[in-house]
Design goal:
- The complex is a heterodimer of chains A (377) and B (410).
- In chain A, 50% of the residues lie in helices and 17% in strands.
- Chain A is an alpha+beta fold.
- Chain A folds into two domains: 254 residues, M75 peptidase, HXXE motif (A middle domain of Talin 1, Up-down Bundle), CATH 1.20.1420.20; 92 residues, Immunoglobulin-like.
- Chain B has one domain.
- Chain B has nine helices and nine strands.
- Chain B is globular, with a radius of gyration of 22 Å.
- Classes of the chains: A alpha+beta (377), B alpha+beta (410).
- The interface between A and B is medium-sized, with 40 and 29 residues.
Chain lengths: 377, 410
């Protein structure tokens, strides 16, 4: 279970409304596009006269006051070069004229043409195109919806099988189906839990409940199977689980997610892993956390896959990094395969868990940049 | 117990004649210690944070490199250098900052240092022996002086909190600033490095400048009296800075850092009589003067005997065993910090000294000194060495056309 993320809803609201010009209205501080922005570059400093501009043609006048040959760049996110001037010898000045749309950029002086250079932020303001105009992003939402529907279909099937096994008293079969049914849930959980109050009923752990709320859902049956070892009375809980899952499935199948929601979902799935599955908190009784872990990563990958065409246009280097890091994470997890499934969480050593934790950190950092990119500001 | 036999109950030690003349330059008018808000320059011939007057707070981290991609590691070192130059100047880690970016993006600075001045922050990088294995083709550049430290008698070293491929020492007057720096570097390094172990420290246990009063360690004693100091350039050249010809060129102008986390069993120490504490250390607790002197900076007289013909400063006293005259002139620039990391589950504080020492060659300096201490120091009864680290800290970056590790990875 996850605590509801109100931000997902806020992102939905802001992403589908055409954006007004942000900031940049002060005539005192902003440089108009017609003025030149001086840059005083030395061996250890890069003093850019203004950190803001209106959209359009921006001219920088760079003076090299240092002892080393330097260069000047304007970067979009991901170190994508918008404009550059190289080979500015000591004592000389050069100009850079660059066309910039609204967004957040960085300027950089690179004395000796080595390293990351000395960077400063540079904000360009103006009206941004509404996201709905971007065909690739609209397609992303449609593609992802297809994925959600495939997962919810399987979720209903497998949960029905699971519930049938529980009510039929077949504990072994129920135990085998428990992590399998949950896989379809965990792949799309952030989507499902946008529809709020059913998530605790389906996926709450013992102790997560509000006063007056009953402990129900997957984890209650998990406890009956693995701890109490008695499912003779679990029938009503199983029935309720199926009813609740069907309700969420109905909502999820209708949902049209915005690109920012997709991006946030991809990140939140990895946060789930970091906070619940690496620690073994999710499936306390069965220790089947690695099934959930794999499902969360798969779900994150599916959200990014839907966004891929749009992302490749905006930051191809980031897409490459994401590919590499997904592959690396999956390879690290693959070491813990057991038959068709996975080792139990309590079979992994601390060293094993640290490797997985490092992989998740390595993947989640670049994923967290996707939302900003698709927001297009 | 061996200790009691050797020292005996401390009678009032007879203080012999104070020995005139000390090594530290006293009596000069020195400028007061830099105000806490000031920034320490990042660029220079030497890395900052070595002879910089010791700041009050430490956050130290050792990383494992978890990538096989040499290019990714070099890229990270470039990003780290840019971020370090910014943070030591009191700027945020990234150009958008904690609150200056768009709402859909996570900030590129974590924000807890917003509104805090630079606070004298220094960031010092070091490379551990393990980095020079097969992974990145650095074996030919490994200095002989970076040989693994030997095990010392009595060590209880935990490998999980020892060693490391790369370390960063963050020192500042404000712990929040030191923590912020390490946290943001760790974040920038995700996917390339992973935190292996880290240590917070307070109350610097050494002066690295004659302008600083000698602070106290958790035994209550002044610590760092006879330390290499910034104002002694000839001694620094002999004992601290790596010289041309000492080893591979990339380390010339750098220094080697040894870290030892030393747990102090403070509960038993605190029950020990004042006289015995002073006998163990070889100095008086209040002034820090050697038992044979009257002023803190008096040179100890190891030949002085008391009325019963016993040495005033015991043969196994800490100050004697560690002293340069007893160790072929070996001196260290110590720059350690106190630590209290919660408690040990047995009703005792997990407290001690995070010992840090910079030197030109650990084989000739730390190793012989520690060998002697480990074998003979009566203080050992109260100490446990639980972690060990050794790092080669390269020379400084003269300007922004360089980055951490550039000459090593060239």
């Amino acid at each position: 279970m996850r605590t509801p993320r109100l931000l997902a809803l806020v992102a939905a609201a802001s992403a589908t409304v055409p954006l007004a010009a942000c900031g940049g209205g002060d005539s005192d501080s902003a440089t108009t596009a017609a003025d030149k922005i001086t840059v005083n570059a030395s061996d250890t400093e890069c003093k850019v006269a203004s950190s803001e501009s209106d959209a359009g043609t921006v001219t920088f006048a760079i003076a090299n006051k240092g002892n080393k040959v330097t260069e000047f760049y304007v970067y979009a996110p991901g170190d994508r070069v918008m404009g550059e001037v190289e080979n500015i010898a000591p004592g000389l000045s050069r100009e850079l004229i660059v066309e910039l749309t609204a967004g957040a950029y960085e300027t950089a002086c690179k004395p000796g043409m080595i390293g990351k250079g000395i960077r400063n932020g540079f904000k360009v303001s103006g009206s941004a195109a509404p996201l709905t105009e971007d065909a690739k992003l609209a397609q992303a939402a449609t593609d992802y919806q297809r994925y959600v529907q495939s997962q919810t279909g399987a979720l209903i099937d497998k949960t029905t099988e699971f519930v049938t096994a529980v009510k039929g008293g077949d504990a072994e079969k129920a135990k085998a189906l428990f992590p399998v049914a949950r896989t379809y849930w965990e792949r799309i959980e952030p989507v499902a839990e946008i529809f709020g109050n059913l998530d605790p009923a389906i996926d709450g752990r013992e102790g997560d409940q509000e006063p007056g709320q009953e402990f129900t859902g997957f984890h209650k049956i998990e406890k009956d199977l693995w701890v109490t070892k008695d499912i003779s009375k679990s029938g009503p809980t199983a029935d309720k689980l199926l009813v609740d899952v069907q309700k969420i499935v109905d909502e999820a199948n209708k949902a049209a997610l915005s690109p920012v929601q997709l991006a946030n979902g991809a990140k939140e799935l990895l946060d789930e892993v970091a906070t619940g599955k690496i620690t073994g908190e999710e499936d306390r009784y069965s220790h089947t956390d690695l099934w959930d872990f794999a499902a969360n990563v798969e779900g994150s990958r599916a959200a990014i896959a839907a966004l891929r065409p749009a992302l490749e246009e905006k930051d191809a280097a980031l897409v490459k990094t994401l590919d590499e890091r997904f592959a690396s994470t999956e390879a690290a997890l693959e070491k813990h395969r057991s038959g068709d499934g996975w080792q139990l969480h309590n079979q992994l050593s601390e060293a094993d868990l640290k490797v997985l934790s490092d992989q998740i950190n390595a993947l989640a950092e670049p994923i967290s940049k996707v939302a900003g990119l698709v927001a297009g500001k | 117990m061996q200790r009691r036999k050797v020292i005996g109950l401390a009678g009032a030690g007879v203080l012999g004649a104070a020995v005139a003349g000390t090594v530290a330059l006293r009596g000069d008018e020195r400028a007061p210690v830099t105000a806490a808000a000031d920034a320490t320059p990042f660029y220079g011939e030497r890395q900052a944070g070595i002879v910089t007057p010791a700041q009050d707070r430490l956050h130290f981290v050792a990383f494992d490199v978890i990538t096989k991609d040499r290019g990714a590691l070099v890229d990270m070192l470039e990003s780290w250098t840019a971020a370090a130059a910014r943070m030591t100047a009191g700027l945020e880690a990234g150009t958008m900052g904690a609150v200056g970016g768009i709402p859909e993006s996570p900030p590129d600075d974590t924000g807890e240092a917003l509104g805090l001045p630079a606070s004298g922050l220094t960031l010092t990088i070091g490379f551990g022996p393990s980095l020079f294995d097969k992974r990145f083709g650095l074996a030919a550049k490994k200095p002989a002086a970076l040989a693994d430290l030997p095990p010392f008698p009595g060590d209880t070293i935990d490998p999980k909190i020892s060693g490391g491929d790369i370390c960063i020492q963050a020192c500042a007057h404000d712990p929040q600033v030191a923590v912020h720096a390490i946290r943001n570097l760790a974040r920038l390094g995700m996917g390339v490095v992973s935190v292996r172990w880290s240590q917070l420290g307070f109350g610097r246990t050494s002066s690295t400048s004659t302008s600083q009063a000698t602070p106290r360690n958790l035994f209550g004693f002044k610590d760092g009296t006879a330390n290499l100091k910034a104002e002694e350039p000839a001694l620094l050249d002999d004992h601290l800075w790596v010289r041309d010809g000492d080893g591979p060129g990339w380390m010339t102008g750098g220094s080697y850092l040894v870290t030892r986390k030393i747990r102090m069993i403070v509960e038993t120490w605190d029950r020990t009589s004042l006289g015995e504490q002073e006998e163990i250390v070889g100095r008086t607790k209040g002034s820090g003067a050697p038992l044979t002197g009257s002023g803190e900076f008096d040179e100890p007289d190891f030949a002085a005997l008391d009325e019963s013909g016993e040495p005033v400063i015991a043969k196994v006293a800490h100050v004697r065993l560690a002293h340069p005259t007893q160790n072929a002139g070996a001196r260290l620039l110590r720059r350690g910090y106190n630590f209290v990391d919660g408690s040990d589950g047995l009703g005792r504080l997990d407290a001690g000294l995070f010992f840090m020492a910079y030197q030109r060659d650990p084989r000739r300096q730390f190793v012989p000194i520690q060998t002697k201490l480990a074998r003979q120091d009566v203080m050992n009864e109260y100490l446990r060495h639980v972690s060990s680290g050794l790092f080669a800290c390269p020379p400084g970056l003269p300007a922004a056309d360089d980055f951490w590790g550039r000459s090593l990875f060239a």
